[in-house]
Every structure is written in C-alpha cells, then in structure tokens.
Amino acid sequence: MNATSRPEDAAVDPGRIVLLTTSHRVAPGLLSWPAWQALHAADRVLCADGAHPQLPYLREAGIAVDEGAPTAEELVAACSGGRTVVLVATGEGEPALTDGLARLAGSGRVSMPDLELLPASYDLPGARLLDLVQVMDRIRLECPWSSQQTHKGLAKYGIEEAYELVEAIEDGDRDELREELGDVLLQVVFHSRIAEEDPETPFSIDDVAGGIVAKLIHRHPHVFGDETATTPEEVKEHWLRTKAIEKRRESVTDGIPLGQPGLALASKLASRVRTAGLDVPLPAGEGIGYELLALAARAEAQGVDPEAALRVAARAYRDAVRATEGLSS
Question: What is this structure's pTM?
Fold first, then answer.
C-alpha cells in the first residue's frame, strides 16, 4: 500500500502509532496498565526483534505479535483507515524508523497518523546499579587485567579512591564528587565480584547489599521500629547501643583499625573513650608523637576532625610554597 496521500483519500483517518518502550532493568512482563490497554486494543502489534524479552509474556497474555521491521511508509500505510499499530521498541528505541517518520511528516505529502510514545515500564531508583553489576561481570570474565585481580591486589586502590573522594568533598567540586563516588562504588562492586569466585565462602553484591540493609534497619529502631529519637545525639546513642549488642566487644577500642592515619586513629580512640564515659588520662611521654596525640584528643573533644584540619593547613602551606615559586595555586 502506498503511503502517499491521494485526493480521494483526504477524508481517511490516518490512524495511530504507539511506540512502546520498556526498560531492560525491569523484569519482562511487568508493564504499566496503560501499556496493557494499548496492546489489547491495538489492531496490530509489531516488533523488529524476534528475541525481545517481552514477546513471550505478551503472547502468553493472548496478544499476537508480528515480527518485522517496517519502513516508515509501510507503518503509515498499516495505520491508514483509523487503525492503531503498537510497535514494541527494541533497546535502541527504533531511531531509523522515527527518523523516517519525521522525514515523511516534514514532506507535507503524507497524512500522518498520531504518534504516541508510551513508556511501558520505568526504571526504579538505583536501577543503573544493575548495569554496573552486568558490566563488572563481563569485565571480570573478558579483561586480561581485571580477571587476574585479587582482594589484596586491589586494596591500595580502595585507599586511593577514598582519599580522592575526600578531596572532592573538601574542594566542593560537584562534578568531581560524582566521579569519585563512582570510583568508590566500583571498588565495592569489583571486590564483590571477586568474592563470588571464592571456593569456600563466596558472596555476591546482593549479599553485601543485603547485609548493609539489615544493619541499617536494625540500627535505626527510631525509623523502622518503636523507639523514638528527636536529636542527633539520641540517634547516635541508639546506634552505639545496637552496635555494642551486635559486636559483643570486650573493649571500646575493639574494631578500630590500627592501620589508619595516625591523627584519625588518635581521634577515634579519644571519641570512643569520651562516648563510653571513661576517665583515661593521656599517656605521659616525651616527643612529637605524644604531643600530636594530645592535639588530636583536644580536637576531637572540640568536634574538630584533626585529619581534615591538618589537610586545610597543609593546603595553605602548599599554596604558600607555590606563591614563593611564582606559581598560581
């Protein structure tokens, strides 16, 4: 059938085209109610991809789907006479077809059907994380470098990315912050993918996410339970109490990583002591180490992060050095 209008066809209803889009991040068959209505009411349903994941579910629902990739002219002709054709879009979104329809409409020679874009499923918040897991899985399998990495081999990158994230936060650079958060997230997904291959105690990214979800719910009884908290101090009290029950630690110092930077370590120890209400005098000793310990404890008591404070001072020193060299900061 020719898509070009003739004088005697002027009164013919050009019909309607519905471009049905779906998200590969949502399970096939979970479509919106308007999508199901459009599919059941359509005079014809087309899909260019015979392996489209939606097709088995559409056919199970009694919807006949013709496999084919019509041209713009053929699709317009199929709608002539007031018919509705639903096109189940492939992952690319049918750009060649939509471009062809745009050219026909711009020619002014064709009576064009109504064109409706109907999203049949939407991504939920966090859906792109599924893409990250899939990409990481493929990289782990096919990349010569990534396929050989171990937890120990990647450890240094985790430290580097954490520091770069802190720097982006302190610089106030939003674009850099987004990028560095992605780099930190990559470390989590990479380690989780490696962990799947452990022969004795494997775990996956779902286990990691499930563990932190359970922890967050348990440590926020004022949100998910019956307890109440109206101030940040009460929230912290809930957190420390539930954490102590979970960990069953003998000492307030248990769980503090001794390999962290010295000022951060000293500040964390002082924080644990203060929070526990213990009266522990700082050890007496000679030398810069004991002086730094006292400074870190004083900073923590005043609500100052000594590591962050030292970085600010160090940056000012760096700028002074560059100024002396005749360079811009």
Answer: 0.69
Residue 261 CA to residue 162 CA, distance in Å, equals 13
Strands 114-119 and 16-21: parallel
pLDDT digits (tens, 9 = 90+) for 132-150: 999 999 999 999 999 999 9
Q: For the chain, give percent helix, strand, coil, nearest 5.
A: 55, 5, 40
User: Which amino acid is present at 328?
Assistant: S
**Which residues, listed in sequence order, are joined to residue 45 by a DSSP beta bridge?**
86
Over range 86-112, report the average pLDDT.
87
Among 160, 194, 18, 162, which Cα is nearest to 94's?
Answer: 18
Percent of the chain scoring above 70 in pLDDT: 96
Q: In what order do the strands lie in the sheet with 114-119?
A: 66-67, 44-47, 84-88, 16-21, 114-119
| Residue 80 contacts residue 1 (beta carbons within 8 Å) | yes
CB under 8 Å to 26, separation ≥6 — which residues? Answer: 121, 122, 123, 124, 127
What is the per-residue DSSP string for 247-303? H--SSTTTT--TTS-HHHHHHHHHHHHHHHT---PPPP--SHHHHHHHHHHHHHHTT
Q: How many CA atoms lie within 13 A of 187 on its CB side?
A: 18
